[in-house]
């Protein structure tokens, strides 16, 4: 037991620099990983499908796939894993890491860009570097059709109109017969420039106590 604990402590310390989490935060996330995986060494999609808070989320599939998307491991590799270990889980969770009072402006900018990239990857499902009209339609249809007040055709019409607006904004000289290939990451970043990411990207769906993920010490 003692040797195992020492090994775990070493692993935690090794992940601090990679993720920006403190050792205590990594311990908390490891406990949640064990709960989700049923104390197995790896996490599979079916483990996440059993989270009650995700059951009625219209983008449940995209959220789950994000955990297995190799692009979210920050090494720009394409493809997906069949299962992930704690280190991969932790790297994905680092996208949701809250800011601290010690976070510099440079770090804040880098963290925001990382969060935007995470969201972009969720919608760029084929990994070609663009969110195409079909991918955008699928996202809008899922978000709107789940409400039951807008049918599939209505959702598609909204998606088409929104994509046309994005195209005219991002490519002002686009002619009526020109084909808009899709939203690039740079376009996507511009679209979300006024969105406050910190309040939008949280870990409530994992049933985590977000107070445990605060960076640094807090006084009460």
UniProtKB/TrEMBL annotation:
Molecular function in Gene Ontology: calcium ion binding; protein kinase inhibitor activity
Cellular component per GO, a single term: nucleus
Signal peptide annotation: none
Keywords: Calcium, Cell membrane, Cell projection, Cytoplasm, Differentiation, Lipoprotein, Membrane, Metal-binding, Myristate, Nucleus, Protein kinase inhibitor
SMART domains: EFh (SM00054)
Pfam families reported in the protein's UniProt record: EF-hand_1 (PF00036)
Residue span(s) of domain EF-hand: 111-146
Single biological process term from Gene Ontology: cell differentiation
Main location: other
Database matches in Gene3D superfamilies: EF-hand
PROSITE patterns found in the cross-reference section: EF_HAND_1, EF_HAND_2
Name this protein carries in UniProt: Calcineurin B homologous protein 3
